[in-house]
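Q: Here's a chain of 171 amino acids. Please give me its 3D structure as tokens.
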Amino acid sequence: MNAMTELRYPIELEQPDILALLPHRGDIQCVHSVRILSSNHFVGQVLWRGDLPMLQGHFPGMPVVPGALLVEAAAQVAGAGMLAGDPCARSMGADHIGMLAGIRKCTFKAPVLPDQEVEVEIHTRQMTPTAAQVAAELRVAGEEVATVDILVVNLPKQDVMDRIQARSAQP
């Protein structure tokens, strides 16, 4: 699906499609599927396996998925949804990358356990040609466990790489 393709909703993304859109790999990649209902409304399914090393210490004997990972899940679902279903984000092409630019508000209402499937419902609002406000509601078995409001910006990949290289060269 290229930027000029006419979009027909809903659009279903499975893990291979998501991996083609997002740069995340390894344990941090948590999105298994995304259903794009419109250009600004997406529903994703995420899950963290109980055997992930990063969950072993949070908390020993009482494992809980860290809140930071719930924020990351919202950003990943939003990223995949916008890159596949938002004409504005799609028009930027592969030379741009979506980055989490701000966390406006988070509310954690119930713990999320490893191996629980989390539904992440996203609504986006374009703020500028390169920035979008993202409102997420996260649910486990229909129960709201968190709400997350974040800002996502699309930046030229080369600019991001240049900044990373400049920082890694510093003592």
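Q: Can you summarize the key feature?
A: The beta strands are 11-14, 31-38, 41-46, 96-108, 118-128, 131-140, 143-156.
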